[in-house]
Inverse folding.
């Protein structure tokens, strides 16, 4: 009922998005891969960007990442330096990505792409920006949570979407569904008919095993990501005993006051503080040695759909 009442506002939002994406953007002299989504919130874009960077490096490319730097104060374009910049300046995602490839923060995405070109990028991965028209994309990879799919299929505010599914998929070069086999089956049953010839790749997020003895560890977990419950479930899958899970807002600042409260609570229940890799870059210096981190990586069993899609834009001559 609420979704139907809000439907007129969704139509306005969808119309505004449709008008915006029709504008012509800057066309770079090197291939541009956009990793984006149709849903609002976390679908796995950051692990996808990391996986693509590593794949491209292995193939001899020199990828640079361009991101808006959500949550950061810098307008850019600026090349992120993890030794000097803080998450408050660049945003947490940019700081994390800079450990894997040269990463540019730029609210003007076209300006960031131009800076990456000048710096010698052979290929640019645009983190988010699927609905932003300022840069022409050679291919757009739409990342979707296989279990959630596209929700109720409605656009904000009556649903979880930034634009109608059909409109978004029309511009997609490939869909990457992230989830376990059972979740993939749910996605295919509900949404597979809408792909209509669009290549589909599947992946699964898995914790990066570092030798940490998680089995039986009593933890107080906290996360400021799109869906914190996924992180808590990951810890349980590793055998940790999650005594409490603190779900924070996405990109929420980890103030000294907040961390002190969590530390006091953890000590009171005899628990170890644990957070995500993305949250960890926002930790105050005094807490970096007190909090354990669980990195996750995207595992793709069959890279062929992605490799073929990217190969087609790398080999195609660029027209400026």
């Amino acid at each position: 009922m609420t979704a139907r009442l809000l439907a007129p506002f969704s139509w306005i939002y969808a119309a505004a998005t449709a008008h915006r994406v029709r504008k012509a953007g800057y066309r770079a002299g090197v291939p541009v891969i956009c990793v984006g989504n149709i849903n609002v919130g976390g679908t796995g874009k950051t692990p996808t960007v990391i996986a693509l960077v590593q794949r491209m490096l292995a193939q001899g490319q020199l990828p640079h990442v361009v991101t808006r730097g959500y949550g950061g104060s810098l307008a850019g374009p600026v090349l992120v330096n993890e030794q000097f910049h803080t998450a408050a300046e660049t945003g947490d995602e940019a700081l994390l990505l800079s450990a894997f490839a040269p990463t540019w923060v730029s609210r003007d995405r076209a300006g960031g792409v131009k800076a990456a070109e000048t710096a010698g990028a052979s290929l640019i991965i645009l983190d988010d920006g699927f609905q932003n028209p300022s840069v022409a994309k050679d291919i757009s990879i739409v990342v979707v949570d296989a279990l959630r799919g596209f929700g109720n299929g409605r656009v904000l505010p009556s649903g979880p979407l930034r634009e109608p599914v059909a409109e978004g998929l029309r511009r997609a070069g490939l869909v990457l569904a992230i989830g376990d086999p059972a979740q993939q089956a749910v996605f295919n049953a509900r949404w597979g008919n809408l792909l209509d010839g669009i290549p589909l790749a599947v992946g699964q997020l898995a914790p990066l095993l570092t030798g940490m003895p998680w089995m039986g560890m009593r933890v107080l977990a906290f996360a400021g990501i799109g869906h914190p419950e996924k992180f808590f479930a990951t810890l349980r899958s590793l055998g940790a005993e999650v005594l409490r899970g603190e779900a924070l807002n996405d990109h929420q600042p980890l103030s000294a006051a907040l961390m002190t409260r969590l530390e006091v609570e953890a000590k009171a229940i005899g628990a170890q503080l644990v957070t995500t890799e993305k949250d960890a870059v926002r930790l105050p210096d005094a807490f970096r040695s007190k909090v354990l981190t669980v990195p996750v990586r995207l595992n793709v069993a069959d890279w062929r759909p992605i490799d073929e899609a990217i190969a087609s834009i790398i080999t195609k001559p660029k027209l400026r």
Notes: The chain is about 35% helix and 20% strand. The mean pLDDT is 90.
